[in-house]
């Protein structure tokens, strides 16, 4: 079993103590940096009065990216299935002729 680490992650000027697996530390730190960068971008580009509004927009942005990747993968997956079916049909036809 991996050792647990106690780390502190800062998001929107608040510190969150977490206990995580060592393998998760780098990803969590990277994610918190991306969130803070996105917060800064929203604050610079939009008239935002409340951190909660900015955090909600960040959550929406990240969630939409995840959803879009799932949609893209589903589309790519169906194309891959069609291609594999075509290859399978060609192989089947070839083997039948022998």
UniProtKB/TrEMBL annotation:
<dbReference type="Pfam" id="PF05164">
    <property type="entry name" value="ZapA"/>
</dbReference>
<dbReference type="GO" id="GO:0051301">
    <property type="term" value="P:cell division"/>
</dbReference>
<dbReference type="InterPro" id="IPR007838">
    <property type="entry name" value="Cell_div_ZapA-like"/>
</dbReference>
<protein>
    <submittedName>
        <fullName>Cell division protein ZapA</fullName>
    </submittedName>
</protein>
<keyword id="KW-0132">Cell division</keyword>
<keyword id="KW-0131">Cell cycle</keyword>
<dbReference type="InterPro" id="IPR036192">
    <property type="entry name" value="Cell_div_ZapA-like_sf"/>
</dbReference>
